[in-house]
Amino acid sequence: MSGSLPPPRIAGQADAEALFTGLSRWRREVMAVAYLDPEWRLLALRHVGGERDHLALPIRSILRDVLAWEAARVVVAHNHPSGDAEPSDGDRAGTRQLAQLLRAIDVTLVDHLVIGAGVVTSLRMRGAL
Q1: Does a structural domain hold residue 1?
Q2: Which residues cross the membrane (predicted)?
Q3: What's the CA gap between 110 and 60, in Å, rounded?
Q4: HEC states along 19-74?
């Protein structure tokens, strides 16, 4: 009886934090995007690299991947190599823009997590979604 394990479910912030925890080790900003099906199962995970202290939110790529994977939900996370998990104004603005565009195609942006040194900040918990 051979078979692969079912994809993990990302049903809450603890699951998402566990999925993205490795981002804290990078010395440049890196974003990871998790694409989920309607039952919260992971369909795909994509990483995008940025500069040492800056990362442009790849909205066009995220929308393309959502359509390709037929995702129902998206969770985004990126690190701050400085260790400070406080979201920037750009983080908040990009998150709102991405959430609005995803809503237009009936997809939910579950959260955007900013990962610092041992600290994770949820933009959903901060009211940005």
Answers
A1: no
A2: none
A3: 18
A4: HHHHHHHCCCCEEEEEEECCCCEEEEEEEEECCCCCCCCCHHHHHHHHHHHCCCEE
Distances in Å between the alpha carbon of 122 and those of 1, 10, 109? 41, 15, 12
Has residue 91 been placed in a domain? yes
Tell me if 93 is assigned to some domain.
Answer: yes
Name the packing angle between helices 89-104 and 59-69 (round to 10°): 30
Q: What's the number of domains the chain is made of?
A: 1
Domain of 54 in residue numbering reads as: 13-105+113-122
pLDDT tens digits for range 69-128: 999 999 999 999 999 999 999 999 999 999 999 999 999 999 999 999 889 999 999 888
pTM exceeds 0.85: yes
